[in-house]
Write a structure and sequence with these properties.
single chain; 295 residues; alpha/beta; 3-stranded mixed beta sheet; 10 helices; 14% strand
Length: 295
């Protein structure tokens, strides 16, 4: 099988799904794209994708990248008339362990081979085909998935054969991402409140163990005021609540994650829901739009 003979249906063409579809097209795969709102899939036609009410017809691989587990199930139901029994379902949406029984039941219903495959990365890595794919699924489908995984990711980490192992790892990874994001947001908010130049903060930690590229990237976004979403506040809140729920189910109390979810809820309520998750910064202030006194 060559890359050009692999047919992939991408269900969900938001920030991440559209970027992944373009990476697949650049790799020479035959791509069909579907979105619940058809107009969001149409721009991919200019890049060579097929768009249709049921985009999964005759697909070797079906990729789902939508908001949450309910949206995943809706997408698969919508695509069901064209699904080919035996196709591999690469489920890349971040979901919770409690969602897996519904998803695997849907796979059985439609005769699909389910692969649990959430991804690490935001808009930029997705656009460049540089995501990290965390995957759990049967060994006998991994060769079939290779062209897809090579197109969308810089690295694939197989962590097991049973669904769930990759989802659990993704929640652990995202708990760290969100913790660091809120840390940057709160540090810059405190700097503003205390009349500290944020550049002085960045210079103070430069080159030491507390410095990191992620700090620099999120601080630059906040200082520019241009919070174009790499990963939006609303989606980050959804993931934070999945993390808290997974911890509770495992008997682990996650106070920081719970507080972070509340920060994101407040930021969304102030009108920042579709901005980058660094907009957690605005939740530090009481203005209706998350502005600080004197801003």
């Amino acid at each position: 099988m060559t890359h050009r003979t692999t047919t992939v249906a991408v269900l969900g063409t938001g920030i991440m799904g559209a970027a992944m579809a373009r990476s697949l097209l650049r790799a020479g795969l035959d791509v069909a794209a579907w979105n619940r709102t058809p107009s969001r899939a149409e721009p991919l036609a200019a890049d060579g994708a097929r768009t249709a009410a049921s985009a999964a017809e005759a697909a070797d691989v079906v990729v789902t990248m939508v908001h949450d587990a309910s949206a995943v199930l809706d997408a698969v139901r919508a695509a069901a008339p064209g699904l080919r029994p035996g196709a591999v379902w690469l489920q890349t949406t971040t979901v919770g362990p409690g969602d897996l029984p519904r998803l695997t039941a849907s796979a059985r219903e439609h005769g699909l081979v389910y692969v649990d495959a959430p991804v690490l990365g935001t808009r930029g890595p997705a656009e460049n085909g540089e995501l990290t794919v965390l995957a759990a699924g049967p060994r006998d489908v991994r060769d079939r998935l290779a062209p897809v995984l090579e197109a969308v990711g810089a690295r694939t980490s197989w962590v097991g054969e049973e669904p769930g192992a990759a989802t659990r790892l993704k929640l652990v990874c995202n708990s760290w991402v969100l913790t660091v994001t809120h840390g940057v947001a709160e540090a810059l908010a405190l700097a503003k409140g205390l009349d500290v130049d944020p550049q002085d903060f960045l210079d103070a930690v430069a080159g030491g163990p507390l410095d990191m590229g992620y700090l620099r990237a999120k601080a630059a976004l906040l200082r520019s005021g241009e919070l174009t979403p790499g990963f939006a506040v609303r989606t980050a809140e959804k993931d934070a609540r999945l993390i808290v729920a997974a911890g509770e189910a495992a008997g682990v109390r996650l106070d920081v994650a719970a507080a972070g979810a509340e920060r994101l809820r407040r930021a969304a309520g102030q009108g920042h829901g579709d901005e980058d998750m660094a907009a957690s910064y605005h939740a530090s202030f009481d203005g209706p739009d998350g502005s600080s006194p004197g801003a």
